[in-house]
Design brief:
Elements (H helix, E strand, L loop, with lengths): L6 H17 L3 E2 H7 L4 H13 L4 E5 L2 E4 L1 H4 L7 H16 L4 H8 L24 H12 L2 E7 L5 E13 L2 E8 L4 E6 L3 E10 L5 H8 L12 E7 L1 H9 L6 E6 L5 E7 L3 H10 L3 E5 L1 H20 L1
Antiparallel strand pairs: 1-3, 2-3, 4-5, 4-8, 5-6, 6-7, 9-11, 9-12, 10-11
Length: 312
């Protein structure tokens, strides 16, 4: 692809290529080049970019590609996974810098042919501001399976050495997920707090399979390898229908339907931190039944909040 190609034109083409993959079982580079009236080399570069953005493209036989639709599902009805993917696209483009960042602003919502005729509107919150060069350095280090070191704000700029596994996006924040080489534990680090990231000349074998499983099964960044804590709550009838319609956390189970319309719901979590903020969102229409420790944490926090509120 020529370096002078209009970046907006390329971004629109990439979106259209994704749509074509969703509509067809497999697509050849020859067909794509004819369809877009460009060269096969240009199409190959487009496909490489999509692969680097972690879209599940594969080549069953030479020159023919297909996409794993079980991961993308469809572009008409968006679930949480698909929204996260759209967010990843938006933020990925932001990391490409000028002139792609400017071009993305007014074409991102045009993955469909005409945004004005689409009945779907998606509101995506902006992420925290990142150091783009450092972001790219971290991603490259992960791809090369190299260890890395960095200073981390909040710990007196303590230096961490890690095996970096994944960069992920939760609730408007980007995180690095990896193994702390000091205690061999999986941990998460906010990317905007990472300073002076440096790749090391030491490699690791592979990303543990359980990392992707943990992230997939987590409703937020407070993931855990084991989910051995059961949290049981009662949800008032005024909000019960939300829990019936969707899981507010991945490991949710409705245990009982009460006669007054309320429901008893259980969650399997790895730590209480994973569920605390979720429960706060539903106050005062949710009551903690167990564990007692979580109930006491909320009672203590609410008493402190009431006391603080009365001061004003």
């Amino acid at each position: 692809m020529k370096a002078t190609e209009n970046p907006k034109k390329r971004l629109i083409r990439l979106g259209q290529i994704l749509k074509i993959f969703m509509e067809r079982e497999k697509v050849s580079t020859t067909w794509l080049s004819k369809h877009f009236q460009t060269t096969p080399r240009t199409i190959q570069r487009d496909l490489i970019l999509l692969k680097e953005a972690d879209f599940p493209l594969n080549e069953p036989f030479r020159g023919n590609y297909q996409i794993d639709k079980t991961l993308l599902k469809n572009f008409d009805v968006f679930d949480d996974t698909e929204l996260a993917m759209v967010i990843a696209i938006k933020n990925l483009v932001g990391q490409l810098g000028e002139p792609f960042e400017q071009a993305a602003g007014d074409i991102f919502n045009k993955l469909y042919e005409d945004v004005t005729t689409s009945p779907v509107f998606i509101k995506i919150d902006d992420s925290v501001i990142l150091d783009k060069r450092q972001f790219n350095k971290i991603v490259k280090t992960i791809r090369e399976k190299r260890q890395g070191t960095f200073l981390y704000e909040g710990f007196s700029h303590h230096e961490f050495s890690v095996e970096p596994y994944r960069v992920c996006f939760f609730d408007g924040f980007w995180y690095l997920v990896g193994k702390d080489l000091r205690d061999q534990q999986f941990k998460r680090y906010a990317l905007d707090k990472i300073k002076d990231f440096k790749p090391l000349n030491k490699n690791f074998r592979c990303v543990p399979a359980q990392v992707d499983r943990m992230l997939k099964e987590s409703g937020n960044i407070w993931f855990s390898a084991e989910r051995n804590i059961e949290v049981v709550v009662e949800v008032d009838k005024s909000c019960a229908h939300y829990f019936r319609r969707r899981k507010v956390l991945p490991h949710q189970e409705i245990k009982q339907e009460l006669t007054d319309g309320a429901i008893i719901v259980s969650f399997k979590v790895g730590s209480l931190d994973e569920i605390k903020n979720t429960i706060k969102v539903w106050l005062p229409n949710i009551k903690i039944i167990q564990p007692e420790e979580l109930k006491n944490i909320f009672l203590k926090d609410m008493k402190a909040w009431i006391s603080w509120q009365k001061e004003s």
